[in-house]
Every structure is written in structure tokens, then in C-alpha cells.
Amino acid sequence: MFLENTVNHDEQFGWIEVICGSMFSGKTEELIRRLKRAQFAKQRVEIFKPLIDTRYNEEMVVSHDANEIRSTPVPAAANIRLLADDCDVVGIDEAQFFDDEIVTVCNDLANRGVRVVVAGLDMDFKGNPFGPMPALMATAEYVTKVHAVCTRTGNLANYSFRKSNNDKLVLLGETDEYEPLSRAAFYKAMLREKISKMDVEAEEVNPSKKAANE
């Protein structure tokens, strides 16, 4: 997307761009592409990511395709406001892991004339809106939804299905933990999971029936 040009050059306000989608959809790849373009244009760029994101590198923002850009890990959204002084462009990766203040921080930066580019998962592994992402998407001038390819149907995927039984909302992982699914594949996978849990619970309630069947 070409979002650098404005019609009214007297207006000093910035804007917010949100890149969202499922895992393996190219969100971080697109974020890095936009930020490197800004760096090439000699703009002052700062990139931030949540401190908990240490999957590939503690300091670099790294895409699944191994493209990378240097970033500053921060424990909370408020730190971004303190560290983003004198910037033309601010990039934020894995925004879904930040606290709700990230929405205020992004809007404050945009109101100061900063271009803010944010990437994050729009839904969690259960298919629910993830953290502050809905509010960021609502207040952003530009929203780009990217898609992966469903591993089961080959159709466009916009769900991140968790293959393990871990119910923690935040669980960093790659293809061993997650797979991108289409709506139909995700619905079927969740239904099978629900039926499987019901069968296990029924066996726990009536173990004598299980023993008799054996």
C-alpha cells in the first residue's frame, strides 16, 4: 500500500495503519516492508514489540520468512510513548499482546503527526477478537487484512487453530502449535474438539461403563 502521500500538506496530523490477520498470513512481513521503505526514505523510524515475544530473537522483529528489522522490546504500551520521541514513523508488532493503553498511545502519536504502523492477530485461537486489536482497527485510518492458506482445504484462511490442548490465551508458537484454517475447517475442528471433550467428561463421570466396554 502507498500511504505516504497526503493531499493537504498543511495538516500536521499523522495516522494509524493496522495490518491484521491469522498466523502465517504475512502480517509481520508487510510491517517490515513498510518500515524499511520509510527507512530507505531517510525517515526517523522506531519499532517496538512486546517483551514476551522472544520466539526468533529478543530484539529483532522477525517474520516467518526470516526477514527482520531491529526493534525495542517493551513491557507495556506506556513505554512506547516515552521512547517514540522525535519519530516520523512508529512500527508496532504483535499488538494483541499489549495492554489496552496501546490504543491511546497509538492515537496520541498519530495526533502528534506520527505515522503509526501496527501489526497483530485480530482473533485468538478460539476465534474471538484479540485484546486491543478491535479498538485499534476501529480508530485506524487504514486497515489491511491479510490471509494465510488453509492447511486443510487450500482456501483462504483467517483463523489460527491451536493444535495443542493448552488453554492459555497467550501461547507463543509456530507450526507445531498452530495452523491457519478457513472458516469451514475451523468450525469443523472446533466441533470435533468439543465432542472429544464431551466424550472424555462422560467417561470420567461413568468409569464403570468404560470398564464394561473394555
From TrEMBL:
It catalyses: thymidine + ATP = dTMP + ADP + H(+). Its EC number is 2.7.1.21. Homotetramer. Belongs to the thymidine kinase family. The keyword Thylakoid does not apply. InterPro entries: P-loop_NTPase, Thymidine_kinase. This is Thymidine kinase. The keyword ATP-binding applies. Its main location: cytoplasm. The active site is at E94. Keywords: ATP-binding, Cytoplasm, DNA synthesis, Kinase, Nucleotide-binding, Transferase. ATP binds at G21, S22, M23, F24, S25, G26, K27, T28, D93, E94, A95, Q96. It is found in: Cytoplasm. One of its GO terms (molecular function) is thymidine kinase activity. PANTHER family: THYMIDINE KINASE (PTHR11441), THYMIDINE KINASE, CYTOSOLIC (PTHR11441:SF0). It comes from the Bacteria.
